[in-house]
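Hi Y.,

Following your request, here is the sequence exactly as I used it, all 199 residues.
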Amino acid sequence: MSVFNRVWILASMLVLSAWSMGCAATSDYMKPVVTPTARTAPADKALVWIARPSNMANRVIFQVMDEKGKFIGDAVPGSRFAVLMDPGEHMLIVWSESQEALKGTFAAGKTYYVQVNAKMGAWKARASLYAVKKGTDLWKEKDSWKDLPVLEVDTAKGQAYFDSIKVDVDDALLNGKKQFEGYSAEDKKDVVLVAEDGE
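Below is the corresponding structure, written out as tokens. Let me know if you'd prefer a different format.
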């Protein structure tokens, strides 16, 4: 085995070890909901649940924005949050070491589900978004989300932070959109929600 391969394996082991050590990350822009209540979509909006069920890379927070660069929320390990969206087509972009995107067509009065997963990156964890579609394994798994802590988004505070780093946000937004356009037709099956995927 070459020296390079040994170094790469050692570095990978150290990164994986770091993922499982230490305290879980917290976000300045997300507040715990002490007594969660059942949430339903209002007649004029779509409700989108965004969950990060795994504690993998538990010291890393993934920020989520929409297609306009608006702060949607932070995907904190082992938690979920809900956001109201206007009916129509939207894009969600998760921002970590790289940017990945999901496109959804949301209908008013319906509830949709998106899963955030951590994966290994070159220097820190990356994230992926997955469309939770009817009839899939993810659709069945979402029932276990009820055990995850619910967080509430401090939208004003999160957006103020995004406004303070607008150049970086704009770059991330552009990269996320480019990433989506580069997905193959097969890849897009996992990152596209249609109106009928809501309940």
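The longest strand covers residues 111-119.

Thanks again,
Q.
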